[in-house]
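Example 3.2
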Amino acid sequence: MPETLIPDLATPAGWLPVVFLGLMAIAMLAYVVLDGYDLGVGVLLRGEPEADRDRMIAAIGPFWDANETWLVLGVGLLLVAFPVAHGVILGALYAPVALMLAGLILRGVAFEFRVKSAPHHKGRWDFAFFAGSLTAAFAQGVMLGMLVTGFRNGPAEIAFALFIGACLVAGYALLGAGWLVIKTRGDLQLRAVRWARRSLGLTALGIAAVSVATPLVSQRVFDRWFQLPELVLLAPIPLATALLFFVAWRSLSRLPVRLSQGNEYGAWVPFASAVGIFVLAFYGLAYSLFPYLVIDRLTIWDAASAPESLWIILVGALVVMPVILGYSALSYWIFRGKAEALRYG
């Protein structure tokens, strides 16, 4: 593979694509964490009593729609800042993207109709919300698996993508269960602890699979991680990830006794640990791929729009992102505390 040519980073053509890659990474990481937990709650919804389903929906009700704004922002930045990569990536991911959008639409419709439908139809709309959440989460995992393998379509690569799809569902369930531990009380809170413990193993397997597959797919990535001094400097990332899994497991093992006694101390630890795990996994993947948007095929400079266009887009992005951050922070502040029973009217 020819050596990557990096333009002069002191020029707009050099540094603007890096800035936009950073903005896009922030948007996508925010989406994975924030919409990840509410997708996870949707996945966990199936089979619960109606009163508990209401409380689970109430735990994400003020946030879930705004959380999806980060996906719109991230894909929008990809489209306007890296139009070549947008065509290549979404063209290769056409089927899982269509599946994800169908899932997101289904859960959006179900969320509204569960309130407005006749009482005996409410369970069907709750199932639709579960199905939409599961479909969207699985499709996103498949997309991740295909991205890691460079969009190859062999049997092994397809099987890998499907496996990562299942693992990301577990990862989102871990986030969702951790959120419910914070936002609920009583038996539902205790069940959320059990759901989180069950999700830990498959989440860990998924992160391990991506970590192993990425350097095997690309010699460049292998050299970046396993040559000295990078091997020593990067060792804290997998070690910290393993430590966070241990912290989450230990907390989830101790919480049932505390919660049954009305002691909320440490209830935030599983969710915070899960967020940390996702952040470290995202960072490791970003480090492996940089400066490529399509692994070993298309760099950010190859795919970027003209610097004149990027200047205009940057002004818009620097206005929009603080607004999204501001109203998101405000909504989380206003609706802090335990989720209460749903009331309409």
